Amino acid sequence: MRKKIKLTILLLMICGITTAQSKLNYGVKAGGNFTGFHTGSSTFTSEFGINIGGIAEYSFSDRIGIQTELLLNQKAGNFGVRDNSNFFLGNIVSKLVYIDIPILAKIYIGNKFSFEVGPQIGFKISEKTEFNGEEIESEIKTLDTAIVGGFGYQFDQGLFIQARYGYGLSEIFENERYKNSVISLSLGYKFY
After folding, report:
1. 3-state secondary structure of 172
2. What are the beta bridge partners of residue 101?
3. What angle do CA 43, 81, 83 make, to 5 degrees?
4. Which tens digit of pLDDT belongs to each residue from 22-45?
5. Residue 86, H or E segment
6. How do residues 47-76 score in pLDDT, each as one tens digit?
7. Which of the pair, 138 or 180, is modelled with greater confidence?
8. Which residues pair with 121 in a beta bridge?
9. Is residue 79 part of a domain?
10. CA distance 48 to 120
11. Number of domains in the chain
């Protein structure tokens, strides 16, 4: 875990050091998340959350750049619980809030469209888990990692839209195989 945090800090420092040598744009974004859990073999995305935060895009050329973000991301998921005889007992619903830091390679296709892909690290800042509507204690891990990828469209006046999928790599619960699965749609603005 410390290795991943150190790598993230190093990449952010490199972006900051090289700012004077090329084009750096800042912006803000907000949107909605369609979220759930995946097990590797199946995905169930039935919950809704929001995403809001800031971006910094560093352009190496007109076609290639790197985009880092600092996001407040609401995620959630649910799954059914059965006893030993496979009798359905009810649903567990977990609502989670993370501070996510994606670091994305950004490739422009033409002047307006872009493709973005890269790793994301998240730090859980709050959680609420319910079983059949009653709040219960849960052991949800603090650190979340994911691979994210998607597309963006840049309008002329600084507005942009993004569609992205985040495929969780970290198990959310101790001894369970559930991982975050998030489809994000966002609208943002870059300050030039």
Report:
1. coil
2. 121
3. 135
4. 699 999 999 999 999 888 666 566
5. none
6. 899 999 999 999 999 899 999 999 999 999
7. 180
8. 101, 145
9. yes
10. 20
11. 1
